[in-house]
Structures are given as C-alpha cells and as structure tokens.
Amino acid sequence: MTTTGRTAPSGRRLTLLAAGALAAAALVAGCGSSSSSSGSSSGGGSSSSSASSTGSPGATQGTLATEHDATLGTLVTDGQGYTLYRFDQDTSNPPATHCTDACASLWPPELANGSGSADLKGIDAKLVSTVTRPDGSRQLTLNGWPLYRYAPDTKPGETKGQGVDGTWFAATPTGDRAMPVSGGMPGTPSGGGY
Question: Whose CB among 49, 92, 122, 158 lies 3.0–4.6 Å from 144's, allowing a Cys bridge?
C-alpha cells in the first residue's frame, strides 16, 4: 500500500489496526479444538506446547476459595477472588488439559503452589488434585477438571468467561459447571473462546 502526502499517518494507523486485528484473529484461531468430540479421549488434544503456555501465574497460585455470585450461586475463586473456570474439552477421568499455547494466554491455568498443593477455603480437599501440563507445570484440578482464570475478568468476582463458546463455565465447589440459580442455560458470549 502506497500513501502520499498527509494521508500517510492515517494509512499507517489503518495498517497497524489491520495488523492488530489479524493478530487477534490468529490468537483466537490458534486454540481451536483438535478433537471433534467433546467426550473423553485417550491421548487427544494439542501435542504442541511451550514453556510460556501457562500464561502469567498470579501471586495467589495454589489458592482455591469460594465466593457467592447472585446469578450463578457459589463459585470457586483464586486467592484474590477471581473466578476460576473449567473447560468442557478437557477431561476429568482421567484429568487432562487441552488448553495450551495461545489458549492458555487467554485462559491462564491455575497452578499448584511451590509444594504442589493448594491452600483451600471452603473446598473439600478430597476433590482437589493436580494434572501435569504439557510444559511440565502442575495445574490444579477440582473433581478431575483442570481450573483456569479468564484474562478479560479484570476485577475479582467478574464472570465474563461464563458460557463462552458453550464450553467454558465457572466452576462450583464440586467441580461442576455453574448455572444460573434460576435454572436454564446461560447465553453464549462471543469472542475469546477456544
């Protein structure tokens, strides 16, 4: 694209905006499911991973607590009150994570603390364990389901990841999907799912 005169800065802005949009689309597309079924599979999922696939672990690594949400009931949170989610394309028996690479940047896994355990507040210790991620880190599981944060949740208590793509749900203290207290299926937010 060639620009001249005073239109050059505007043209550069458009080029930068287009490049940013393409990068965002690549991020979203980069974490699609490689499995065609949502049931459990032996050895399915992405085989590629990197050391940075775990996202940015928070200072509250390895803390599981409960908080009450007016719409969804009692949810599992990390130590700072951020909602934790489960991914329907993972498996719970056996526990396996299928959110790696770009997916794990948007949905950072909740990792075990340095001792490989978790500090628990309102969570049954018998339901908590870990699964080894492809990069070797240990991710906390609840009733077998690996737990994640959602990067767009920027404040404690937010639940923006609830129902994303019909596969991401806030976790309950038993590891189940959170559903609206009044019943029914939540709407499926668009954008940012994997």
Answer: 92
| Strand 73-77 versus strand 63-69 pairing type | antiparallel
Tell me the mean pLDDT per 10 residues along the chain, length 194.
45 42 39 35 32 38 91 96 98 96 97 83 94 95 97 97 97 96 52 52
Q: Are 132 and 95 in contact (CB under 8 A)?
A: no
Q: What is the pLDDT of residue 117?
A: 74
The two tokens of residue 91 are 């498996």
- Per DSSP, the residues of the chain read ----TTHHHHHHHHHHHHHHHHHHHHHHHTT--S-S-SS--SS-S-----GGGG----TTTTEEEEEEETTTEEEEE-TTS-B-EEETTSEETTEE----THHHHHS-B-B--TTS--EEESS-GGGEEEEE-TTS-EEEEETTEE-B--TT--STT--TTTTGGGTEEEBPTTSPBP--TT-SPPP---SS--
- pLDDT by residue (tens digit) across 148-184? 999 999 999 999 999 999 999 999 999 999 999 865 4
Amino acid at 170: A
* CB of 153 closer than 8 Å to CB of 147: no
Full-model pTM: 0.66
Tokens linked to 110: 């909740």
Q: Convert the pLDDT of each residue in 113-128 to its tens digit.
A: 877 778 899 999 999 9
